[in-house]
Here is the input.
Amino acid sequence: APSNYTAILNTFTTYWTRDSLGSVSSLLTRHRTFKVLMIGDSGVGKTCLTHRLCAGEFPCRAEATIGVDFRERLVEIDGEKIRLQLWDTAGQERFRKSMVQHYYRNVHAIFFVYDVTSLTSFSGLNSWIEECRQNSLGQDIPKFLVGNKSDLRDPSRANQQVNQQTAMSFAKAHGMMCFETSAKISPNKLSKIPLLRVKHPSSLFDFHCNMLILARLTHV
Ligand SMILES: Nc1nc2c(ncn2[C@@H]2O[C@H](COP(=O)(O)OP(=O)(O)OP(=O)(O)O)[C@@H](O)[C@H]2O)c(=O)[nH]1
Here is the structure.
């Protein structure tokens, strides 16, 4: 496996294109589909992140998700168009109900989202990990720890917000890639925390890198 994610990131960046999924050609062509599940407490910004990723903007209004929403985006990576299917799940238990096991079927990657200004949402991650375990999520599925709302970081309230080192240690302990982001602010203003290297089977390595690039380029 390549030793440096940054190098891979730079290589792949040149292949990146944005495509409107609504185009007829996109809909008629068969593409490999990657299903990515967004999970995390209610209000951490899963809907806004998927909206940012697929529509390229921060939604002016976001309501609590009921059940699940799907958003898709066609991305071109290394000459191949890939359909990225984002499953934006409800954070509120009452809106998840008995649907949960369907979310986890044939998943290719998971985003565990928390809000950097909410310690509760960070401690809530344990129950999301437990839900994954109960749904027999494979160890080899790439997992991303995403601290959202980095635009709201306030140094004067540091002890009420999620410490970056704590997040990184948590990610490492659970074999996740980890970074902070904001669905709200423009990508070039985002401050990033260093990426962690985690072990992955080679078959998933490419996809993992691509997800990472996607994440870095589009905020999620
Ligand atoms: N400042 C800031 N606000 C954000 C960001 N992302 C989301 N929000 C706000 O956080 C609130 C909740 O966002 P949602 O995307 O609906 O959260 P969710 O995780 O999908 O919530 P559920 O559907 O209930 O699970 C909204 O008021 C958003 O405007 C961000 O990056 N920065």
Remarks:
- DSSP finds eight helices and seven strands in the chain.
- Residues 202-218 form the longest helix (17 residues).
